[in-house]
Write a structure and sequence with these properties.
By secondary structure, this protein is an alpha/beta fold. It has one domain: P-loop containing nucleotide triphosphate hydrolases (Rossmann fold), CATH 3.40.50.300. Helix content is about 35%, strand content about 15%. It is built from twelve helices and eight strands. Strands 3-4-2-5-1-6-7-8 form an eight-stranded mixed sheet, sandwiched between helices. A hairpin with a 4-residue loop joins strand 3 and strand 4. Helix 1 packs across helix 12. The radius of gyration is 19 Å and the shape is globular. It starts with a strand and ends in a 37-residue tail after the last helix.
């Protein structure tokens, strides 16, 4: 049975889609069966997986409205080595259409039950906003992987995400937990990033993944070629880091059955709280006389 993870952060521009497609490619590279689901109407994860969203006849939109199954809507990215349940602009209308429907937050969860045994990992790329699409991803998942930059405002944004996950955990999906924080776009030469990284490790302990994804130009260039960096330039430092992260995830994660609670049991409390923001600005340099 697949382990289902959302890649989510309510702060935009943190490398969420880059993380999703490169982790999917990294997992495929180490022998895992992977389905990548694009829940963002922009369809960037679809295009970044070598799939032309304009040519898709069925997408995750059709799955959410129950006019197609996952098996009917998915396509295989031959170059990347994983399956894709793609998205395009049509998905933007799904939220309006789902508002009046029954089980509107759990439609993706229901659809994935039919294909869970075919995969080792299912990765869901969520939009940055808290929307009905994001809720579908969170309700379907066992947990959330949070990509974040080691910057001051990223710590503040993490508070919003943790509170959202707590609400979903308490009311909609008691299996949901934060799997871990992934430090991305990291530059060890920047003192502030080192400070934030140390604060994350001190506050969250083993909830911070060992792997750090460096800031890397090849990862930034890869989407323009319609590929994850792991496929576009395997020797690049960023690509190698994502393969290392995939290996870490495979090594650390328990079976999916161990991540699913008894339906009759009360929801367990979330094991994380937002961190205090205590990173200080550097001292001012005295003016020369």
């Amino acid at each position: 049975m697949a382990k289902i993870f959302c890649i989510a952060n309510q702060k935009g521009g943190v490398g969420k889609t880059t993380t999703t497609v490169n982790l999917a490619a990294g997992l495929a590279k180490v022998g895992q069966r992977v389905l990548m689901i694009d829940l963002d109407p922009q369809g960037n994860a679809t295009m970044g997986s070598g799939i032309d969203k304009r040519r898709l006849e069925t997408t995750v939109y059709d799955v959410l409205l129950e006019s197609a199954s996952v098996a009917e809507a998915r396509v295989t990215s031959e170059r990347c080595g994983y399956d894709v349940l793609g998205a395009n602009r049509e998905l933007a209308g799904a939220e309006v259409e789902m508002v009046a429907l029954d089980r509107r937050e759990k439609r993706l969860r229901t659809a994935l039950a039919a294909v869970g045994a075919e995969y080792d990992f299912i990765l869901i790329d969520c939009p940055p906003s808290l929307s009905l699409l994001t809720l579908n991803g969170l309700c379907a998942a066992h947990g959330v992987i949070v990509p974040m930059q080691c910057e001051y405002f990223a710590l503040e944004g993490l508070t919003d995400l943790v509170n959202t996950i707590k609400q979903v955990h308490a009311n909609l999906n008691k299996n949901l937990q934060i799997i871990g924080l992934l430090r991305v776009m990291f530059d060890p030469r920047i003192t502030l990033q080192q400070q934030v990284s140390e604060q994350l490790k001190a506050h969250f302990g083993d909830k911070v993944f060992d792997t750090v994804i460096p800031r890397n130009v090849r990862l930034a260039e890869a989407p323009s070629y319609g590929l994850p960096g792991v496929v576009f330039d395997p020797p690049a430092k960023g690509s190698q880091a994502f393969v290392t992260f995939a290996e870490e995830l495979v090594r650390k994660m328990p079976p999916a059955s161990a991540m699913t609670s008894d339906a009759s049991a009360p929801a367990a409390p979330m094991p994380m709280d937002p961190p205090p923001v205590t990173v200080h600005a550097p001292e001012e340099t005295p003016e020369s006389p």
